[in-house]
């Protein structure tokens, strides 16, 4: 009788360990089993050089989401942004690709708009600003063609 209790305790302990391991694996791998949180909007950029999936999306310096997908469509980069529930984007917001510091990671910065109409989930941000190309700027500076 005492042996069955010990075996049951070990079984519960192993099961608890497996549940914890699965939880940690899903969280560390950033896997979402039941769809994603928030809602998505898209934005088209001429270039998203250096931008990666899972990069942050900020508004006024506050993180409001992340880059969900980046794909090429008709010569332009189409970026899908996953925005937190409760954050509403006006129709005239401006999405720009920025850099954390001079050579830091790229992220999307949303500049608030003034419209009283909001982008619906699955909608599109119309105004975008591509990132500043530091290499091109340095090349112009080095070769003296900066004024062009």
UniProtKB/TrEMBL annotation:
Listed Pfam families? MlaD
- The yes or no answer to whether the keyword Transmembrane helix is present is yes
Among InterPro entries, the record links this protein to:
ABC_MlaD, Mce/MlaD, MlaD_Phospholipid_Transporter
Q: Which UniProt keywords apply?
A: Membrane, Transmembrane, Transmembrane helix
> Any transmembrane segments, and where?
6-26
Could you tell me one molecular function GO term of this UniProt entry? phospholipid transporter activity
* Source superkingdom: Bacteria
Which protein are we looking at?
A: Outer membrane lipid asymmetry maintenance protein MlaD
Q: Which residues form the Mce/MlaD domain?
A: 38-113
């Amino acid at each position: 009788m005492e042996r069955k209790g010990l075996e049951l305790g070990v079984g519960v302990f192993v099961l608890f360990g497996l549940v914890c391991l699965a939880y940690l694996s899903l969280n560390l791998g950033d896997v979402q089993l039941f769809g994603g949180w928030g809602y998505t909007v898209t934005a088209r950029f001429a270039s998203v050089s250096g931008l990666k999936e899972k990069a942050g999306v900020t508004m006024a310096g506050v993180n409001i989401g992340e880059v969900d997908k980046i794909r090429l469509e008709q010569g332009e980069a189409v970026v899908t942004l996953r925005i937190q529930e409760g954050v509403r984007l006006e129709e005239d917001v401006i999405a720009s690709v920025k850099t954390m510091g001079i050579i830091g990671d790229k992220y999307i910065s949303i500049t608030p708009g003034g419209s009283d109409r909001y982008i619906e989930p699955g909608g599109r941000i119309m105004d975008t600003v591509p990132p500043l190309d530091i290499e091109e700027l340095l090349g112009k500076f080095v070769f003296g063609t900066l004024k062009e």
